[in-house]
Prior knowledge:
By secondary structure, the protein is an alpha+beta fold. It has helices spanning 23-47, 58-85, 110-135, 140-153, 155-165; strands at 12-17, 91-95, 100-104, 107-109, 172-175, 180-184. The chain contains 5 helices and 6 strands, in the order βααβββαααββ. A hairpin with a 4-residue loop joins β5 (172-175) and β6.
Amino acid sequence: MKCLSELPQGYRRILSLDLQKDKKLALRINIAALAVAAVMGIIAGVVTTREYFLYFDIVKIIIIFAGMFIYLVLHELVHGMAMKFFGSKTVKYGFSLLYAYAGSKDYFNKNMYIVTALAPMVIWGVVLMILNLICGIEWFWVIYLIQIYNIAGSTGDMYVVHKISKMPKDVLVFDSGVSMEFYSAE
């Protein structure tokens, strides 16, 4: 199963998404991300005891921000690795005004794109959960805040998966990194 380098004959664009241009959608996704982060933070705050909060210091705060930046890069690398796995010859990485991205000049079918979209959240979610389990309470919030960033930061990916799941089976996705186009022959 490989992605396509050209759009097949008879396909037409059925949807375009560009969070740089569609400010209302970008705002809705960012509000949803903040809501996810708040819920995850509240749940962990209720479940944990006060002693979990005693381990914060400036070094751990610096590690949290460095970890979030490193995670952002790794998140996009996983998107790119998934694109390559599905046959993309060239993956482009970058930072736009609001987002980091991985993009390609190829067309991915529905299942390929769902895997590509969700791979970073799932892979890093498992890695961060394991780290949380083995690192003890003094590192709980450092790791968990990066996990919140992982899940909340994947809200846009989850939105796209929700949209594509309702599309025809033959849908092809062109993801340039900063925008996406969805095509179908149906």
